[in-house]
Amino acid sequence: MNPIVKAWPFKGWAMDVIGQIHLKSSKGYKYILVATGFFAKRVEAVPLKKVIQAEVLEFIENNIIHCFGLPESIMTNRWTTFMGEAIQAALRNWGIRMVQFTPYNP
């Protein structure tokens, strides 16, 4: 495996969803949305009850853009939520390049 290295912090992020977790939390959370920065391996994560495009966009805006600035790229697998038109349009609007890879083959 080849490591992905970025020239400066928070330029590139990788995002994925952990779940469905079968022993959901007491508040009903069944998924965890995780983003990892390539440069310093910074991790941001939030629990989710269901994974919908609005929740993913809110996470990107609040946990990545507002905290660390606009990244150059976000890498995800080809999960249907990440491929949705609302997410693709928002990323184009922000000028963020979406890079997709085949699941289980980084």
Biggest pleated sheet: 5 strands, mixed
Share of residues in helices: 10-25%
**Strand fraction:** 25-35%
How are the strands ordered across the major sheet? 3-2-1-4-5
List strands and helices in order, with pairings.
Blueprint: E1 12-19, E2 31-37, E3 43-48, H1 53-68, E4 73-77, H2 85-94, E5 97-101
Detailed description of the structure:
By secondary structure, this protein is of the alpha/beta class. 25% of the residues lie in helices and 29% in strands. The protein is built from two helices and five strands; from the N terminus they run βββαβαβ. A five-stranded mixed β-sheet has the order 3-2-1-4-5, with helices on one face. Strand 4, helix 2 and strand 5 (97-101) form a beta-alpha-beta unit. The longest helix is centred in the middle third of the chain and has 16 residues, at 53-68. The protein is globular. The chain starts with 11 loop residues before the first strand and ends in a 5-residue tail after the last strand. The model has no long low-confidence stretch (mean pLDDT 84).
